[in-house]
Amino acid sequence: MRFYRRLIIILLVSLGGVVFSQTNPDLPLDALQNYHIGRDLESKNRIGEAAPFYAEAVRICMEEISLNRATMDTYTVLTWALRRQQKYAEVINWGQRALRISTDYRIIETMGEAYFYLYDYDNSLDFMQRYTNSLPQGERAGVAYFFIGEIYRLQEKFRHADIAYTTSVRLDPGQPLWWYRMGTVREALGDYAPAIEAYQRALRLNPNYREANQGLERIQSVIQ
User: Fold this and answer.
1) Alpha helices in 67-209 (DSSP H)
2) pTM here?
3) pLDDT score of 99 more than 80
């Protein structure tokens, strides 16, 4: 079994699919390593291949919890893997259990995402703001601000959404979707010049972004 696991890892590495180091390849992968392999495969749209790694990450974490060996890292990886499996209610359940032990902002941000996908925007906004208020430059701050922007956009609070999206792209300027969303709320506000700039940034990152191009065309038809 270990031989086949090592073979899979070697193949993935040779395809540029995995970025992590393991000092002893004879040891089984831990939960975090399984999660990272799954996440890397998913980022390449290889969802079916990613699923077993997420499942194994969950299994390992659950075993650690059952054996009273769990740390906050265990709960963090568990919620991450469950979120990738789209098991949002379970993310909330295990996240709440973890936060009764200790405050961990990694889990708070993941719970914010889970609440969003459960259409519980009030709780999602609360958790995302808890994250950004405590870690404004945190690793997931850009993502958290993007979700805040999404909530305000859906609530048609376009000025608030613009501020949130602006912060998200300042922290991570390489996401074409975030620039596109910024363009849509600026367009809704009638701020056409800044909207054009946002759509153009989205197109520079993804020249085939049809919706961004359509946004530019809409504005050009209005201002001509």
Assistant:
1) 72-84, 88-101, 105-117, 121-134, 141-154, 158-171, 176-189, 192-205
2) 0.87
3) yes
